Amino acid sequence: MTENTLYSNTLKRLALINRYYKITKFYDFLKDTAFKAGTVVAIFVLLLVVLEYFFLDINAILNSLVESYSPEVIFSFFLTSETILGIVPPEIFIAWASKSSTPWLFLFVLASLSYIGGIISYLVGSRLFMIESVKNHIEVKIAKHIVNLRKWGNVFVVLGAISPIPHSIVSLACGLIKYSFKQYLLWALFRYLRFIIYALVIFQVFGE
User: Fold this and answer.
1) Over 70: is that where the pLDDT of 144 sits?
2) Dist CA 84 CA 62 (whole Å)
3) What pLDDT shows up at residue 53?
4) How far, in whole angstroms, is CA 11 from its chain's centroid?
5) Over 70: is that where the pLDDT of 33 sits?
6) What is the pTM of this model?
7) In the predicted model, what is the mean pLDDT of residues 44-72?
8) How many distinct structural domains can be found in the chain?
9) Structural domain containing residue 62
């Protein structure tokens, strides 16, 4: 195969992928997700700043958490949250990490726990087929995520890792549809990128 032929085939493949994403409205979904991600960060930071200015001393509260609870307690609670459908926003824990003596180390631990929480959710999803009634109930609840995962595969796993889409729900959906575990482990690594991006903003606001 000549270099020109290879180049031509690559262009054709990219054109087909682009057409598929247009047909499935992936680009619209991506724009909407990016907008929501930026909005979530902006609202979270603005809310905390307003609360601190008018009602609460957020920095004092975060410092109190650092002094009152050991990192092990906070990390354990965070892992539980990230496993059970992300019941507490990770941004709160990132703000807490900014007050520690080693904020970037704590951030790495948080990102790792979130990654592990996703793996646990994946494994739970992969076992739900053993209980048909529960499996059917969960599939109905997260049907939209399952549809998107089947349409966009790896790309949707990445979006689940870096965007406001609940990472644990996407992970659960991966387990339910028997999505490749190796592929999941690879693309879910983008979870670390999300924590870094959010930390670059939150650390500037609440870090000392």
Assistant:
1) yes
2) 24
3) 65
4) 32
5) yes
6) 0.79
7) 71
8) 1
9) 3-206
